[in-house]
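Entry 12.
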Amino acid sequence: EEASTGSNGVHEALQAEYRDMAHWYDRFWADYLNKTLSLPLQCVRSAIHEKKGTKENTQCIDIGCGTGEFFKRLVSSEHEITAMCSLQGVEPSPEMLAQARRKFQDLPGHQQPTFHEAPAESIPLENETVDIVCSTSAFHFFRNKTTALQEIYRIMRPRSHLIITDWCADYLLVKLYHFLERIRWNVWHRYSRYPGPLGSKTLQQMIQDAGFVDIQMKTYRVRVFGIWFWGMQTVTARKS
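Predicted 3D structure (tokens):
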């Protein structure tokens, strides 16, 4: 279900919620991040190394980058990453971006990621300037997923890589959580059109409709907080 202009209120409320949790977000979600970032990190590292031998100044962008934890782990796992590519993050929450910038303040200026305060539906980059686009645990919150994919396609160079990891509505626990969240936001707070995760077939079709090719989908569960088996999906694709 795509959001419309009538959904602005819930997204502003969500942004306020993330503003309040920005300073403790990484600590609270540490176990979740440990379990869910490993596969997309592997995919992004592989894409960076593939591009390394073909062109200079590879551009990698994280959409909905939050506190910058994905890039922090990417750089920590392989310090040469900052020499192989330039990193950029896009995030609508200024408080989350403040946390992201702090994580890289000890790096030399030319090695620090560039962060942009913007939604996924309006990425402040020129056409065909990016080689790798990734997004982790953010796609379900995008205001308009179709528009976001159109923007992502616009900024990507031909044959560049797309890697999206997100919650997967194929799994009962994810469906139940989303149902409860819709009650909280739509009924209790009286907002309309609370955004939510997609099933794997729906996400794959949406990516295909946006013009991407070589689409590969993996669905899986991760054990978080010791007891919960949370449904995830990672999809990789290329711009035609």
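Annotation: Strands lie at 58-63, 85-91, 114-117, 130-136, 156-167, 212-224, 228-239. The longest strand covers residues 212-224.
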